[in-house]
Amino acid sequence: EVQLVESGGGLVQPGGSLRLSCATSGFAFGRYAMTWVRQAPGKGLEWVSTHSSGGYSAYADSVKGRFAISRDNVKGTLYLQMNSLKPDDTGIYYCARDWGSPTVLRGQGTQVTVSS
Fold first, then answer.
1. Alpha-carbon distances, residue 49 vs 36, 67, 70 (angstroms)
2. What is the arithmetic mean of pLDDT over 85-113?
3. How many angstroms separate the Cα of 48 from the Cα of each of 27, 28, 35, 66, 76?
4. Sequence-separated (6 or more) residues with CB below 8 Å from residue 110
5. For residue 27, is pLDDT > 90?
6. Using CA atoms, how far apart are residues 55 and 50, in angstroms rounded to an integer?
7. pLDDT tens-digit series, residues 51-63
8. Is the pLDDT of residue 103 over 90?
9. For the residues of 23-37, what is the DSSP string, one character each?
10. Are the beta carbons of 15 and 84 closer than 8 angstroms?
11. CA 36/CA 43 separation, integer angstroms
């Protein structure tokens, strides 16, 4: 069974940092591009960042320079280091496999709240 389990969310003040993790199992993690997406309150899903199986990473303009995606293929875990957080970063963060395809798989998400 394929599983994606996010963790690391929480409440943080503006300017603070969080590190999200996505533990996976049930598939050959290292062979897949993995993606972080988020959903702000009352809005749709927004792409945040993707890390390809070959080591290439891409970021939404809204997080470029503040967020860093990485992965540990031995542990089957995807990470998102989030720095200089802003209230607009508030939302539920999901990791996903096959983002943009009909076979997309997504975890249950972890809540990130940026507020003073």
1. 5, 9, 10
2. 95
3. 23, 23, 7, 11, 20
4. 6, 7, 8, 9, 20, 92, 93
5. yes
6. 10
7. 999 989 999 999 9
8. no
9. EEESS-GGGS-EEEE
10. yes
11. 16
How confident is the model over 102-115, as a mean pLDDT?
A: 95
Q: Contact, 96 vs 109, CB < 8 A?
A: no
Residue 16 pLDDT > 90: yes
Q: Which of 23, 8, 42, 13 is nearest to 97 (CA)?
A: 23
Query: Which secondary structure element, helix H or strand E, spans residue 55, and what is its range?
Result: none
Q: Tokens for 109?
A: 């998400």
E strand spans, the chain: 3-7, 10-12, 18-25, 34-39, 45-51, 57-59, 67-72, 77-82, 91-97, 105-106, 110-114
CB contact at 8 A, 59 and 36: no
- Distance separating alpha carbons of residues 58 and 113, to the nearest angstrom: 23
Give the span between the Cα atoms of 14 and 2, in whole angstroms: 35
- Tokens for 84? 């200089």
Round to whole Å and give the CA distance between 55 and 15: 28
> What pLDDT is recorded for position 74?
96
